[in-house]
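thread: overnight batch results

M.L. [08:02]
morning all. the overnight job finished for the chain we discussed friday. pasting input first so we're all looking at the same thing
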Amino acid sequence: MSRQPIPNWAILTLVTGAVILPIAIAVIWGVSLLLGGMQDEGGAVVVRYVALVCGVFWALDLICLVLAVGLNSLSDSNRRE
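M.L. [08:03]
and the structure it wrote out:
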């Protein structure tokens, strides 16, 4: 019976975030540019910061994904030996 330290649902959630967040960042950044083009500088700045926060979450998600897959990989290699 294999026991992985990180459950599969957590890795699936991290992979989903790694795929969805860059798309969301691009859309939010586009809205920021649209607001800037419509001379709503205050709204553009706020939405740009939201895109920045999403970018930080994306970076954290990628780091957690690499660590989770690495931990599961180490667990599998220890079990085989």
